[in-house]
Design a protein that fits this description.
Blueprint (H helix, E strand, L loop, with lengths): L1 E6 L5 E3 L2 E2 L7 E6 L19 H10 L3 H9 L4 H6 L2 H7 L4 H23 L2
Antiparallel strand pairs: 1-4, 2-3
Helix pairs in contact: 1-2, 4-5
Length: 121
């Protein structure tokens, strides 16, 4: 299972080849089932358990095809992703500023927040 966040007004693909209409909310959480992943204790698997390829696929599916390769090149797995600071994303991955800001604000930061929330219960 992957959790995806999409910003306001952005079309998203729920099923490959099928586009949804634009969302009116600021952020939407989508659950994406793949590879027979299971839910443990009523929760999706922790991003801390993601391998590098899971992180890459997360960003590809979220619409950051070009930027996803930077996570592979830098060998960013789930644990590393959850440790990333805003500065790491903006400068450490050598991404263009616009996509880097979106990746951090709409993806990395919410995943970190959700991870902390799930692990403090």
């Amino acid at each position: 299972i992957f959790i995806y966040f999409f910003s306001e007004g952005r079309s998203v693909s729920l099923v490959p080849g099928i586009r949804s209409s634009k969302w009116n909310r600021k952020a939407v959480i989508l659950l994406y089932w793949s590879g027979g992943s299971s839910v443990e204790n009523g929760r999706p698997p922790d991003p801390a358990d993601w391998a590098v390829i899971d992180v890459v696929n997360y960003f590809r599916t979220a619409g950051f095809e070009e930027q996803a390769s930077a996570f592979q090149e830098q060998e960013i797995d789930g644990k590393s992703l959850l440790l990333m600071t805003r500065n790491d994303v903006l400068t450490g991955l050598s991404l263009k500023l616009g996509p880097a800001l979106k990746i951090y604000e709409y993806h990395v930061k919410p995943l970190q927040t959700q991870h902390l929330k799930n692990n403090s219960l």
